[in-house]
Amino acid sequence: MSIPDPIPLLETRQLTAGYGRVRIVHRVSLAVHEGEVLAVIGRNGVGKTTLIKALMGILPATDGSVRFEGNEITRAKPHQRARLGLGYVPQGRGIFSSLSVTENLFMGERIGEAAVTPKNYERIYGFFPVLRERGHQMAGSFSGGQQQQLALGRALLGRPRVLLLDEPSEGIQPNIVQEMGRLIRRLAREERLTVVVVEQNLDLIRAMADRCLVIEKGAVVAEILPAELADPAVAARYLAV
Ligand SMILES: Nc1ncnc2c1ncn2[C@@H]1O[C@H](COP(=O)(O)OP(=O)(O)OP(=O)(O)O)[C@@H](O)[C@H]1O
Ligand SMILES: [Mg+2]
User: What is the per-residue pLDDT for 4?
Assistant: First the structure.
């Protein structure tokens, strides 16, 4: 007897979205289960960011559906999705350079006020000690890697169940990339965090992802295992390397 599949935490069916009348994402169907790390890969400009924005509700779906724990959320606004448990770190991180690290961090507070307990922010400082040690510094003075930690910390403060990450390796040093991969893995394993992450960095994908969804021209063209990217021909075909 086989064990039935649990309901995916986040699922899309034939999701279509774009800008105005321009369709970018075409009929994307994906499903991600609790504790899973799904990488969305593909070359520049294929629509990865557009897909993530449609998952978060920043862009409306023009066709198809989005479900969270089996419940239809296709028309839900971003703040409603955040309340349900979707966290989002945009490409470029969305840090306010002229505000302090602490001010940036506690902006996430409004997402789920109940979640911001001392225990919860101790948890964030445990993951990213630099956010406490340099809390008074302007966020703009942080390195790329530190800013990414700040963006991740801010998103995690809302205690999301699904984290949507858009190119976390962008502009950060190779040694930090490995560390970030390990952290994301740990969050998935220990806290059952579910992650959908757009990424083009081979090392990071291999350090954290369970599966990779390959996007070309806004559509899913393949699903591969991270190990398959060890083949340079596969990596060259699917990533901007
Ligand atoms: N605000 C916008 N208005 C109109 N078209 C847009 C907008 N943002 C992106 N596009 C177009 O949508 C397409 C997909 O862009 P998107 O940013 O989703 O790609 P991407 O895969 O995330 O690329 P990258 O790897 O460079 O981040 C591109 O052709 C882009 O020009
Ligand atoms: Mg992008």
Answer: 65
* Ligand 1 atom nearest 200 alpha carbon: 25
Quick one: average pLDDT of 40-62?
97
Substitution site in 28, 48, 205 for ligand 1 pocket (most atoms within 8 Å of beta carbon):
48
Nearest atom (ligand 1) to Cα of 240: 25
Centroid of ligand 1 to alpha carbon of 50 (angstroms): 6
Total Cβ atoms within 10 A of residue 220: 19
Q: Ligand 1, residues 15, 16, 19, 167: which to mutate, most atoms within 8 A of Cβ?
A: 19
Residues with CB under 6 A from ligand 1: 19, 22, 24, 42, 44-50, 91
* 81 and 196 belong to one structural domain: yes
CA angle 91, 172, 205 (to 5 degrees): 70
Q: Is-above-0.90 flag for pTM? A: yes
Neighbours of ion ligand 2 (CB under 5 A): 48-49, 91
Q: Is residue 90 part of a domain?
A: no
CATH number for the domain harbouring residue 81: 3.40.50.300
Domain containing 72 equals 1-85+160-241
Same domain, 177 and 134: no
